[in-house]
């Protein structure tokens, strides 16, 4: 039975993408997510470091489902004498993927807009070798503020300081059933998890085993899952399945992860997900992601938790840049999650 509420999922995705949540900047999106949980009839619990989870019901053999809501972004590293900003990445945002993007600087004095530009940005008055050099935060990239500033003192007078977090525009665009945006990783998975929670709430469904939904805010800087609810026995991360020339993942299918760049996933729990997919008729692939990819399961294992771990996701093109997925993949991922959690 197809119970995927596309309208609700898309509304949640739109709302989540509209909230700036560079890793470390969690308060607004945490409050939003906790409020949505309350609307669905659940009782959210927040972490001191940032994070929100809730019990979806059921008894024994506790399963925790993880999805992260932090984004990659930038931070002010230095204020140049001419009033532009030097930046460093927060998470894996390469300079070439940030160049020319509109940004918001979240300072203690307010939120200011700007653009990621070359220090020498005009092709007409820049030597070709300088203009054509690779984008590099240390050498040739800065942020030009949309303010009438001409000195470091002018910038500081606005309240902007070293250490301020900087968020990029998401540019959500729908092209038929393709979804294009920054930060589909991992806000699409989070929207899918909220959609399953809504289905369970609307239909008064209690899972056969205890299930916890847990939204983390530090996955992009590698400690999102370093704490998990202590009763957890099984851990499933929801995250993007990168599409590439040697990948089996597909923008129209769900993916079950066999291994990331750190560890193989638990073979027994992975096989249970495969069995659930086969029984439910889910269009899926199994894939391996190396190098440079991990999920919130990894820090949980590194922290010493005695859990079985697995991960599932949707096919996603161009990770950590201007990403793309297809509604088909989200539908299949939702179906797999529902089949495993609820046996439907």
Structure, explained:
Helix 6 packs across helix 9 (327-342) and helix 7 (267-280) packs across helix 9 (327-342). The longest helix is centred in the middle third of the chain and has 19 residues, at 184-202. Helix 7 (267-280) links the parallel strand 15 (254-259) and strand 16 (284-288). This protein is α/β, with parallel strands linked by helices and 344 residues long. The model has no long low-confidence stretch (mean pLDDT 97). The chain is built from 9 helices and 18 strands. The strands form 3 sheets. Strands 1, 2, 3, 12, 13, 14, 15, 16 and 17 form a 9-stranded mixed β-sheet that branches. It has a 6-stranded antiparallel β-sheet with strand order 5-4-9-6-7-8, with no helix packed on it. It has a 3-stranded antiparallel β-sheet with strand order 10-11-18. 47% of the residues are buried. It is globular. It has 2 domains: 6-71 and 183-342, Aminopeptidase, CATH 3.40.630; 73-168, Beta Barrel (Elongation Factor Tu (Ef-tu), domain 3). The protein has helices spanning 6-17, 27-39, 95-98, 128-131, 152-157, 184-202, 267-280, 297-302, 327-342; strands spanning 45-46, 52-55, 62-68, 73-79, 85-90, 102-107, 110-118, 141-145, 165-168, 173-175, 178-181, 211-216, 232-238, 241-242, 254-259, 284-288, 308-316, 323-326.
Strand content: 25-35%
Cα-atom Rg, whole angstroms? 21 Å
Order of helices and strands: HHEEEEEHEEHEHEEEHEEEEHEHEEH
The dominant shape is globular
- Which homologous superfamily in CATH is the superfamily of the largest domain? Zn peptidases
**Ends: how far apart?**
8 Å
CATH topology of the largest domain: Aminopeptidase
- Largest sheet entry: 9 strands, mixed
Quickly count the domains: 2
State the total count of DSSP E strands. 18
CATH class term of the largest domain = Alpha Beta
Count of helices?
9
Would you identify the regions where 5 or more consecutive residues have pLDDT less than 50?
Answer: none
What CATH architecture label of the largest domain applies? 3-Layer(aba) Sandwich
């Amino acid at each position: 039975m197809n119970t995927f509420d596309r309208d609700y999922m898309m509304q949640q995705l739109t709302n989540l993408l509209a909230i700036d949540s560079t890793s470390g900047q969690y308060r607004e999106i945490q409050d939003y997510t906790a409020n949505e949980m309350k609307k669905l009839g659940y009782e959210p619990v927040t972490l001191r470091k940032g994070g929100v989870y809730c019990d979806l019901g059921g008894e024994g053999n506790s399963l925790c489902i993880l999805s992260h809501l932090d984004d990659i972004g930038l931070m002010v590293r230095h204020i140049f004498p001419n009033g532009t900003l030097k930046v460093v990445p927060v998470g894996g945002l390469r300079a070439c993927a940030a160049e020319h993007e509109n940004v918001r600087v979240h300072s203690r004095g307010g939120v200011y807009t700007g653009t990621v530009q070359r220090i020498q940005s005009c092709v007409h008055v820049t030597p070709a070798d300088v203009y054509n050099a690779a984008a590099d935060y240390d050498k040739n990239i800065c942020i030009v503020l949309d303010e009438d500033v001409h000195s470091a003192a002018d910038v500081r007078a606005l309240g902007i300081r070293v250490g301020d977090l900087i968020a990029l525009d998401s540019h959500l665009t729908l092209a038929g059933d393709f979804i294009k945006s920054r930060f589909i990783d991992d806000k699409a998975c989070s929207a899918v998890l909220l959609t399953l929670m809504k289905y369970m709430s609307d239909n008064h469904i209690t899972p056969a085993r205890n299930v916890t939904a847990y939204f983390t805010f530090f996955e992009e800087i590698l400690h999102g899952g370093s704490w998990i609810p202590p009763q957890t026995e099984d851990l499933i991360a929801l995250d993007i399945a990168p599409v590439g020339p040697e990948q089996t993942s597909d923008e129209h299918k769900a993916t079950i992860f066999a291994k990331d760049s750190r560890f193989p996933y638990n073979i027994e729990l992975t096989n249970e997900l495969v069995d659930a997919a086969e029984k439910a008729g889910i269009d899926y692939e199994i894939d391996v992601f190396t190098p440079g990819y991990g999920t919130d399961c990894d820090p949980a294992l590194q922290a010493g938790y005695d859990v079985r771990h697995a991960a599932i996701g949707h096919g996603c093109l161009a990770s950590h840049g201007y990403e793309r997925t297809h509604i088909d993949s989200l539908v299949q991922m939702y179906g797999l999650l529902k089949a495993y959690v609820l046996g439907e």
